[in-house]
Write a structure and sequence with these properties.
Blueprint lengths: L1 H19 L2 E4 L1 H16 L3 H13 L3 H13 L7 H11 L5 H13 L2 H18 L1 H4 L2 E5 L9 E5 L2 E2 L2 E5 L8
Antiparallel strand pairs: 1-5, 2-3, 4-5
Helix pairs in contact: 2-3, 3-4, 4-5, 5-6, 5-7
Length: about 180
């Protein structure tokens, strides 16, 4: 009788341990600094660094970083050009229903062939399974940075634990 209880406890611990393995713990200022440095690197055309930082934030659930990452794939900035992966990241960011993201996703939907759309949507589903809000525990909301009623940015906040933010780690996307 004791073996099943012990086994159950060990199995529960294994699940918790593997879930913790998917997150990095960082101070809130580190996350905000990462987003700032990603933007500055992109503006300076240091695409390698901008890609690295945006990818990290995108995997953690940041919708703006997901959209930027998609554009970088589409344009081959800091990464080999990959239209389907770029489409997938932008379409995934558009799940938030922010006008800038949904407009671009719609244009890409119209530009792709049915075969490309099928492959792209499979990549979008991979992203949803691995970086969706239920997995990353990120909450996002629209903001008006200009003090008017127009939503002009998206802010995402990772889950906090013990004063640190939990950033979901990246996993490898299947090949084309």
């Amino acid at each position: 009788m004791k073996k099943p209880v012990l086994f159950s406890l060990l199995a529960t611990f294994a699940v918790v341990a593997s879930a913790d393995d998917m997150f990095d713990r960082v101070q809130p200022n580190e996350f905000h600094q990462m987003l700032l440095e990603a933007s500055q690197s992109y503006d300076k055309q240091d695409y390698k660094r901008a890609f690295e930082l945006n990818q990290r934030a995108a995997c953690a659930g940041d919708k703006t970083s997901q959209a930027i990452l998609g554009r970088m794939y589409l344009l081959g900035q800091g990464v080999p050009k990959d239209d389907l992966t770029g489409y997938a990241w932008i379409k995934f960011a558009a799940d938030f229903k922010y006008a800038e993201f949904t407009a671009l996703a719609g244009k890409l939907d119209d530009a792709l062939t049915p075969q490309q759309l099928a492959k792209g949507k499979a990549k979008v589903e991979f992203l949803r399974r691995n970086y969706g809000p239920a997995v990353t525990n990120v909450s996002c909301h629209g903001e008006s940075r200009r003090g008017v009623y127009l939503i002009d940015s998206v802010t995402c906040t990772p889950e906090s634990s013990g004063g640190q933010l939990l950033l979901h780690r990246c996993v490898d996307m299947p090949a084309k």
